[in-house]
Specification:
Layout lengths: L1 H5 L6 H29 L2 H11 L5 E4 L3 H9 L5 E3 L8 E5 L6 H4 L5 E9 L2 E11 L2
Parallel strand pairs: 1-2, 1-3
Antiparallel strand pairs: 3-5, 4-5
């Protein structure tokens, strides 16, 4: 009888060991995956795609962009943005797709050629229309 008490199985091991392994796995995956998730949720992929479509330009007109989009294009894309009503020889035009209906009131669309519609990877509703000035 005394021998059976000395070799009693620890009940806590069956719960604590798998739980600690799960917590360690979750901690490692969030630590290693957080920079990737952060990158995809930011505006960096959107600004890079727009810069690829536009090419090297001195300045770009904008219409209907949100403050977050304007900040992203200026910071991440190093793009000098001006309002579409400003009289300047900018070569590009960025339009928020939701504001496309009011573009004709602000600018003559016949002097612009549509280049591409660029979507933000994590938000399908956020679309930027890219135009280039006709020569």
């Amino acid at each position: 009888m005394a021998g059976s008490l000395a070799h009693r199985a620890a009940l806590w091991k069956s719960l604590a060991l798998p739980a600690s392994g799960t917590v360690l796995f979750w901690l490692l995956m969030t630590t290693l995956g957080l920079p990737l998730m952060n990158y995809t949720r930011s505006y960096v992929p959107l600004t890079q795609q727009v810069k690829t479509v536009l090419g090297p330009v001195a300045c770009v007109h904008e219409h209907g962009l949100t403050r977050a989009q304007i900040s992203a294009f200026q910071y991440h894309g190093k793009i000098a943005l001006q309002s579409v009503g400003a009289e300047s020889p900018c070569e590009g035009l960025l339009v928020n797709a939701q504001a496309q209906g009011t573009l004709a009131q602000q600018a003559s669309i016949i002097q612009w050629r549509w280049q591409a519609a660029v979507r933000r990877p994590t938000d399908a509703a956020e679309v930027i229309l890219v135009y280039r000035r006709l020569p």
